[in-house]
Task: structure prediction
Amino acid sequence: MSTLLSHLSYVAVTSPDVEASVRFYEEQVGLTVVDRIDGAVYLRCWGDYYAYSVVVTPGDQPSMATMAWRTSSAEALDEAVRRIEAAGATGEWVEVHKIGRAYRFTGPWGHSMTLHWDVTRHQSAGAEASVYPDRPSTRSKVAGAPRQLDHVTIAASDVDAFTAWYSEVLGFRHMARTELDEAPISVFSVLTTNEKSHDLGVVLDGSSAAGRINHYAFWVDTREELLIAADVLLENGVAIEYGPSIHGIGEQNFLYYREPSTLRIELNTGGYRNYVPDWEANTWHPSQGSNNFYRNGAMPMSMTESFPPADGPSATEEGVPDEIKGALLNPYAKHGQG
Ligand SMILES: [Fe+2]
Result:
């Protein structure tokens, strides 16, 4: 299949307190507000090439409103829509702020996805204009501020089926998966539209909720910036949930923390670049350090929380053998692998 999608372009999230979230994105993450329209706030990283990469909208709970990908051409957008509808999903054409025509559909596991070719490129003026032609604006003055949006990781009740659908229908490359040491159950997979290990991740959702997000991530250029960001966040009283450390899968440096809505965000840098068109995904086990390269830091249980928080009994509490219940709830904790 020709490459239909080129990269993740924006993530729209909901927050019970939009202003608190926006203030955090501005002051602690280093994003800039570009527009406020009908309660929605549009923000961008200093190096994002388009008008915005994050939209914060009001909502009762933290959640993902939609995740947007730019296609590789106008024809690729039409082809993607044809394939989505042939696969049994339905969506609609929508007008998106500073994007224009876009196709929005809900995937089989309840995740809203927006595909578009049209964009508005960003070019700052005045004091925010960069001296370098390729930069859309000057580097942020906030220490450790990310250059651009990087990836989104959602939660789905069947990791392998989710991976197969998005690979077969939209042409994502499947790069790696994690299977429990205790049982042949997939708990994590990474997919990509480009040379990165992933711009779409999927974690196992043990609840009956649909369309949940686990986190989304921004890119910083260097490990040193990521460490400075961690330092400054702690000095500012922002708790770090997990990291800094390195993932085994993808080999990126990572740092996880929460914005005021409680939604988890991540800073990422480093990792391999993979251009192999017929790459075959390897299966990792947590004991191999899939999540923590150094195999010495247990992932906190809180990292298994996805958004919005799930109500009712978890699937992991029913019909699951006791010996793998704990591993399902936190597949990385048992081996102290992080
Ligand atoms: Fe991530």
Summary: The pocket of fe (ii) ion is lined by residues 151, 153, 201, 215, 217, 266 (CB under 6 Å).
